[in-house]
Amino acid sequence: MKCALIQFNPKVGDLAANGEKILSLAKKAKAAGAELAITAEMALIGYPPRDLLLYPAFIEAARNQALKIAASLKDLDLTLILGSVAFSETGRGRPLSNVALVLQAGEIKATYEKRLLPTYDVFDEARYFEPGQKPLVVAVAGQRLALTICEDIWNDEAFWPRPMYSLDPLSDLPPFDVLVNLSASPFSVGKQKLREAMLAALTKKLARPVLYVNQIGANDELIFDGRSVFLNQYGQVLARAAAFAEDLTIIDLDSSASPRPPDVYGSEEETWLALCLGVKDYCGKSGVNSVVIGLSGGVDSALTAAIAVGALGASQVHGLIMPSPYSSLHSVVDAEELANNLNLGSATQIPIVPVMDGFTTALAPLFRGLAADLTEENVQARIRGSLLMAVANKFGRLLLTTGNKSEISVGYCTIYGDMCGALAVIGDLYKTEVFRLAKWLNRERVVIPENTINKPPSAELRPDQTDQDSLPPYAELDRILVYLLEEKLSPKEASRLENPKTVSQVAALVKGAEFKRKQAAPVLKITGQAFGLGWRMPLACRSVFQED
Questions:
Q1: Known catalytic residue: 113?
Q2: By the 8 A CB rule, do 537 and 543 touch?
């Protein structure tokens, strides 16, 4: 039997456009000889739909669209397994199910309801769905297909040290020939290696091949990398769809194809491709094709601008250079060199000294007799934020923020200042990772000026300022942040691995910056722990980052 893995980029909520794309690809699959086509999880509505699911009219419209697709395929002798949502058949609990619809002969012939509903990290499926209660095996062209959806296959006690659920949906499957999985598995660096290892372990355990279809595209802060795969019963990958791109992969289940080599992407290339896709889809699906970025001459804004160019093209990326009395000459020169290297659509210089003078005059009666401090530094950042927002508003552009994960973690950023914007492009990259990605980008030619990479990082908000006046060296800071944020160590535990005084300082900064993160732009997620959907710390509390 020939089957097709339909890996496409849906727009959340756009039922008509998604339906048309699925139908078009299904027809192409049939033209290539496929008898079966499979989409990703919730392909018809896009994942994650979040509170769109609370509107019954939306669910009914999704069903009507599925029926329309079925009717259009009636005469093609093609079975389509379609990811969608439906009103639950259980008659109790939550009203909806996350489903795989089996479209045959112009009808919805069968419905499989997802049985394991994740609620960790970015997932909140139990908010909307009732779990399915039974397996489903369907016959297509003489093959018995066991249907599963994403999380259903991520609970093998032989693979995971601690399975997350008491139920394993694979334990009560009726006899079957091929395991099918519809997935919307968000990207993180290195995750494909884990996915394929898990899938290989399953195929060997079940002694059955697996057809795995993953979503591609970015929806808000989540990025989906695709890389749908077909593995034989020996755990060998016989076909793999494209990474970070739409793909229609035709597979002959009876072929003796040679195993595919492992995925070849390094961490820097994966990160680059993911962030470019994240920016491209966030802008495109928001209906905006042009962005503005504040160019400081530093590595963060330089990398953000380069990613934006990779996503949208140079003509759609506009820079604003806003020197203050404390901006060094080389910072302005570096920003201009970057703009030339990237061939930006525009790079305009607006000195902020006159605006600073106006603030100083306006605040003088209140601040008389008080020494300058962080207040005046923040005013500079907020002036820049206001100018960037004004340009974004006037020209219909989207403002990208340039803060990295290290800064966002410890609050080394100004709310309503450099935090202004619609999307935090590198907000899930620690500063040391920003430098690594910048150097990788320069591997063949200088894109980011060498001086930008080599000079000491500085906010340049007071004379001779460097980041290390306020923070530990970034290599040390980032190690501590990994312990506290990624590995979930307490400050006491982290102090056994790093300088206790520094750990205490960093932990206090992380706790104190929580209110800023609650008001920050969405962060493109590329790690297992990003700030956003998967970070849900209370504000007014005694924090785990406070020491005894």
A1: no
A2: yes
